[in-house]
Structure formats: structure tokens, C-alpha cells
Amino acid sequence: MQFMLLFSRQGKLRLQKWYVPLSNKEKKKITRELVQTVLARKPKMCSFLEWRDLKIVYKRYASLYFCCAIEDQDNELITLEIIHRYKAYFILDEFLLGGEVQETSKKNVLKAIEQADLLQEKTQNMYHSKSFIGCKKAY
């Protein structure tokens, strides 16, 4: 894996982890280009795309996009599984907030997660039906 980015639907970078040495200028350029590319894609499009000399694997959970850049020989499905496992932290945040227990009921936590997923789908459909008619090419 070359790097992992987490960013919002508005394109605001929330987390970045780089596994290759790059200058800050190059990181900013890559981030800007990749965020624009991923946000321009429709919800029903494949979560894998070729970008520059890398493969990009991304997934949206709630209002965040999880985006990983992998090399050509790396497995996209394993990368998608890594992203999916990261969602466990979202579930943990439903139980705890600021180190304090917020909810003890599994049923209520699952309900909150289902509501967040439903809101994500509604927002995604509304956002893409109004804003994007076409899709930009990833190159």
C-alpha cells in the first residue's frame, strides 16, 4: 500500500497515512487530484480505479471516504477488506465518546449504525442525482 486517505463528502481531508517518502507539495497535489476524482464518481460505479501508475480502492461509510492506493500487483479485494475492518472504529465511537461510555445497548448501537448507513444512501443518491451528470475520466 502506498497511502491511505480519509476525507469527507465535501473533500476535507480527515486522516492521511503515507507509506512512501514524498514531499509535502507532492502529497498535497496527489490528495487534491485523488479527492476530486473519487468525489466525481457515481455511487454505483466500481470501487476500484486505475489512477496514474496505481490502483485506487475506495469505499464510503457515512460521510467519510476511505481511499487506499495500491500497486498494480496488489489485491483490490484484500484492500477493500482492510477498509471494511476500519469501519469497526465507527462502531466503537457509537459506544464511547471522549473516553466515556455513551451507549451500553447493542440494539441501540446497531440502530444508530443502520440510521447512519440509511442517511448515507439517501444523501449519496440525492447528491449524485443533482450534481453529477457525467463522470470524469480518472487519468
UniProtKB/TrEMBL annotation:
Any one GO biological process: intracellular protein transport
Origin superkingdom: Eukaryota
The AP complex mu/sigma subunit domain, residue ranges: 1-86
GO (cellular component) term, any one: clathrin-coated pit
Record-annotated membrane-spanning stretches: none
Membrane topology reported for the UniProt record: Peripheral membrane protein
Entry's Gene Ontology molecular function annotations: clathrin adaptor activity
Glycoprotein listed as a keyword: no
Keyword field: Coated pit, Cytoplasmic vesicle, Golgi apparatus, Membrane, Protein transport, Transport
Subcellular location: Cytoplasmic vesicle membrane; Golgi apparatus; Membrane, Clathrin-coated pit
Family listed: Belongs to the adaptor complexes small subunit family.
Protein name: AP complex subunit sigma
Gene source species: Propithecus coquereli (Coquerel's sifaka)
